[in-house]
Write a structure and sequence with these properties.
The complex is a heterodimer of chains A (310) and B (272). Chain A has 310 residues and is an alpha/beta fold. Chain A contains eleven helices and 14 strands. Chain B has 272 residues and is an all-alpha fold. In chain B, 45% of the residues are buried. The chains are: A alpha/beta (310), B mainly alpha (272).
């Protein structure tokens, strides 16, 4: 559905995106992650034909974004981070206007508008003035607008920003539902959202791709392993040495905690290390007060990738 | 393009500037007409001929100010709000967006001026008779031509300005220049002894407000003394009809050229 090859985008001497390549298959939900200013929005805007690439080749649905820009725009729905709306228009009036701009025929306009109003739970506010809506409703109007022409590709830049937890859950369900018959690119800082929704993840940092893989491979690889928190009373040096000697342990950090020391044991691999830690404490007759396993999250992976890049 | 055009008209109605402009224009015009006799110890609506002469000065100030502001705030405002980039990312060409905005603003402005003058015309016609209605129609056409030229200049300013505020300031500076400064400069040159009528006529063509003023005076009163040296030179050189056609052509050029240069810039404009 999307093929990005060696994309570079420069603005007045600043390189926002620097030689990135990735593909997205039809029907995939791609999580687009990265710190602020990493180049996510620029990449998404090139895909949405907001501006052309400085160099490289970008195609959507087999159509080049420069040579077939109008055709690409017809099959892309883009929701920017801050949805720029006309505050003096009514919700349904705004959606009708955008549907006309997107080339939705008169015959289909009412049906499409009704459908997106239902999907985004906006029926109750359809006659309200956009400028009088809360931030959450305005985000949903932006989401509805991006879907009004039933595009094959949806590009959503922080769609849940400013929403309350119920609204976030609702949007997440909408995105999941859209993934059945659409290709979706989802940029967000809420990483659990990506874990729950996306089938693939691309991490972009300083204009370059820092990591890209399927969610499944992320779980098996970068997110495999975990960390164990243990409170142990014993000679600090000996405890640390014993914990570091356990299989697959990559780091041991210690902090004093009264008579005890709090240890954080990071390790790779699939096994649970709580039992070996308990055995080491029992064998050496050290006091053991707490033993807790923490699964590695996408957030840990994100932080480690972007910190490594720093 | 029709979607953009319809939105522009809809917005002018929703924001109520259309009604405000019509109302203010009507009130001022009727006030001018009503007070026209006050110097003669009488009150009541004056006929078309007397009203047009008084209304001309009002129109020459009011219409370019309004049109410059409407034009200048359109594209610059949408660019600042982020809505322009969002519109340009839709499957619609830049030409359609530009033309849609220009025509939509033109239709709103033309509608407000035509409605305002139309209502005034109706009131005066009922109260004071139809004599001189032709002169009033000339004034209306002149107002529309001047409005179109000022709007096109405003749109050009809007495309060039980096922000809404810059566009607003630039539009106001141009209004002061066209409505006052260039006139003062011309008068100053005459006082200083520069009395080349051909040069003065060319200077009039370089100012859309002066073009509209001489054009209207030419149509209202063919007596040479009211036209000033530039008008006299134009009538003597090209004849009344020729001078009127030249001035109307200049106003059309003031519409087409800024709109075209604005389009050339808009086509390449970087909108993020």
């Amino acid at each position: 559905m999307i093929a990005v090859e060696h994309l570079v985008k420069r603005f007045a001497g600043v390189t926002a995106v620097n030689d990135i390549s990735f593909t997205v298959e039809k029907g995939e939900i791609l999580g687009f992650l990265g710190p602020n200013g990493a180049g996510k929005t620029t990449t998404m805007r090139v895909l949405a034909c907001f501006f052309p690439p400085s160099s490289g080749r970008v195609s959507v649905g087999g159509l080049d974004v420069i040579h077939h820009s109008m055709d690409v725009r017809r099959i892309v729905g883009y929701m920017p981070e801050s949805v720029p709306l006309y505050p003096d228009m009514r919700v349904d009036e705004y959606l009708r206007y955008r549907a006309r701009l997107k080339g939705v025929t008169w015959k289909d306009q009412k049906r499409r508008i009704d459908e997106v109003l239902s999907r985004c739970d906006l029926h109750d506010v359809r006659r309200r003035i956009v400028g009088q809506l809360s931030k959450g409703f305005r985000q949903r109007v932006g989401l509805a607008e991006s879907m009004v022409n039933d595009p094959a590709l949806l590009i959503l830049d922080e769609p849940t920003i400013g929403l309350d937890p119920n609204q976030i859950r609702h949007v997440r369900d909408v995105v999941k539902d859209l993934g059945h018959d659409h290709t979706v690119i989802l940029s967000t800082h809420i990483l659990p959202e990506v874990e729950m929704t996306c089938s693939r993840v691309v991490v972009i940092h300083r204009g370059r791709i820092a990591a890209a893989d399927s969610m499944e491979n992320f779980r098996r690889g970068a997110m495999a392993g975990g960390r164990i928190r243990a409170e142990i009373r014993g000679p600090a040096g000996a405890v640390r040495e014993a914990l570091a000697a356990l299989p697959d342990v990559s780091a041991v950090r210690a902090e004093p905690n009264g008579d005890y020391q709090s240890y954080v044991i990071e390790y790779k691999g699939g096994q649970d290390l709580r039992e070996p830690v308990f055995a080491a404490a029992a064998r050496n007759q050290w006091g053991l007060r707490e033993l807790r396993f923490e699964k590695k999250t996408l957030e840990d992976v994100f932080v480690s990738i972007t910190a490594r890049e720093e | 393009m029709t979607a953009i055009l319809a939105r522009e008209i809809g917005e002018s109605l929703r924001s109520r500037w259309f009604l405000l402009v019509t109302g203010v224009f009507c009130t001022l015009a009727l006030g001018v007409s009503y007070l026209s006799w006050s110097g003669a110890d009488a009150l009541g609506f004056a006929g078309f001929s007397r009203t047009v002469a008084s209304l001309l000065n009002l129109m020459l100030l009011f219409v370019p100010l309004l049109a410059l502001l409407v034009g200048a705030l359109g594209i610059s405002g949408e660019r600042e709000d982020g809505t322009l980039g969002y519109v340009l990312a839709q499957p619609i060409g830049r030409g359609a967006v530009y033309l849609g905005k220009l025509l939509g603003q033109g239709a709103s402005l033309g509608g407000a001026v035509a409605l305002g003058l139309g209502l005034v015309g109706l009131v005066i016609g009922r109260q004071a008779g139809a004599e001189g209605a032709g002169a009033f129609a000339v004034l209306a056409v002149d107002a529309l031509l001047l409005g179109a030229a000022s709007l096109a200049i405003g749109v050009f300013v809007s495309v060039c300005a980096g922000s809404r505020l810059a566009a607003l300031v630039f539009a106001l500076v141009l209004w002061v220049l066209f409505a006052f400064v260039l006139d003062f400069v011309t008068v100053g040159l005459v006082i200083a002894g520069w009395t080349n009528p051909g040069g003065l006529f060319l200077a009039s063509l370089a100012n859309p407000v002066a073009c509209a003023k001489v054009l209207c005076l030419l149509a209202l009163n063919s007596k040479l003394e009211v036209l000033g040296p530039a008008g006299i030179h134009a009538v003597k050189t090209f004849g009344s009809a020729g001078a009127a056609a030249l001035l109307a052509g200049a106003l059309c050029a003031w519409t087409v050229l800024p709109a075209w240069i604005g389009w050339r810039r808009f086509r390449r404009m970087d909108v993020r």
